[in-house]
Amino acid sequence: MKFKNVFWGLILIIFGVLLIGRNLDLFNFDWYNFLRLWPVLFILWGISVLPIRDVYKTVILILVLAGSTWFVIDGPKSSFYRNFEYSFSDDSNSNDVKYFKNTQQFTVPYDSAIKNARVIMDAAAGSFYINESTNDLLAFNQKNNDNNSKYKYFVETKDGETQIRIKEEGDHFTFGGDNNHRKVNIQLNLNPVWDVNLNAGASAVKLDLSAFKVRKLDLDGGAGSFKITLGDKYPETHVKVNAGASSITIKVPEAAGCDLRISSVLSGKHISGFQKLNNGHYQTANYDTAKQKITMNVDAAVSSFNLIRY
Fold first, then answer.
1. What mean pLDDT is reported for the chain?
2. Residue 269: helix, strand or coil by DSSP?
3. Do 172 and 62 belong to one domain?
4. How far apart (Å, rounded) are the C-alpha atoms in residues 227 and 208?
5. Are residues 64 and 108 in the same domain?
6. Are residues 28 and 123 in the same domain?
7. How far is it, in rounded angstroms, from Cα 126 to Cα 203?
8. Structural domain boundaries enclosing 90
């Protein structure tokens, strides 16, 4: 038994089990805990050069990897994720007052002449939720712990189409700090046809768009968790997702005809109710006959990807 073979075999098995367990929702873990364990590389290197028999090296290796695996699964959630919560729409409660010191609110008035609307938001890190509507065109509410953290917005209307761009004033991101703990709630009007463009870094994103007429959804995400629910309010919806080390879950109506093209490197995929046409191309059986069609292009690196029909 060669130690080198055992070493790489155990590493691959453990990494595979972690990904499978996360994909099946058997357990959840913070990807950032992997970065916290970088000193383990020196330990593994040291084990490999110890002048002892391979069987003893293997025992030590198993103990180190077991402890590291336990830390990844059960270790504390890093402030890198814990301190950022954005939401399109709010599912929080009054307990928020315990965690947030500052608020920012604004609304964009609705005009019945507006037929199409686009919201563009640059979000370096956080979480987002959409699940409620407003009589305004858009309602924005931010809660945070940073006195200097504010958003500015720009509205442009032309030929019945309104574009709303939301971006943070300056750069207030502090790696791992508590001063950027924030929660942003955005509500949208039900009447216009929406294009949603979200540029999210290390974020937890939950977009329930089932009640809205969505023409396009463009999500560019880094490390984070992205949960998206699409509805059947618009005949053709186009979705584009570009993500790094992320957990991605997309829910689509069962009656909709869906076409998925996915390019992935080290991604665990769970795609239910779809037929595989060829490598990276999936489609529902009712795609040609369905009144509503959803096309999705997903480019994911080290991610878990779940596509569910509901």
1. 80
2. strand
3. no
4. 8
5. no
6. no
7. 4
8. 80-309
- Condensed to tens digits (0 to 9), the pLDDT of residues 166-224 reads 988 765 544 444 434 667 889 999 999 999 999 877 677 889 999 999 999 999 877 77
Could you tell me if 113 and 73 lie in one domain?
A: no
Give dist(CA 296, CA 289) in Å, integer.
18
Within its chain, how far is the Cα of 204 from the centroid?
5
Provide the residue type at 206 as one letter.
K
Both tokens of 218, joined, read 């463009």
Number of neighbours of residue 1 by Cβ within 10 angstroms:
7
Phi, psi for residue 171 in degrees, rounded to 5: -125, 105
pTM score: 0.68
Cβ proximity of 258 and 296 under 8 Å: yes
Quote the CA–CA distance of 261 and 240 in Å, as a whole number: 10
- One domain, residues 101 and 168: yes
Closest CA to 181 of 89, 103, 93, 90: 103
For residues 165 and 266, give the distance between their C-alpha atoms in angstroms, rounded to a whole number: 33
* Alpha-carbon separation of residue 209 from 181, 230, 249 (angstroms): 25, 5, 13
62 and 129 fall within a common domain: no
Asked whether residue 67 falls in the same domain as residue 99, the answer is: no
Q: Are residues 60 and 172 in the same domain?
A: no
Alpha-carbon span 43 to 48, nearest angstrom: 9
* CA dist 200 → 52, 166, 257, 286 (Å): 49, 12, 28, 33
- Using the 3D structure, point to which of 42, 77, 112 is the last residue of a domain: 77
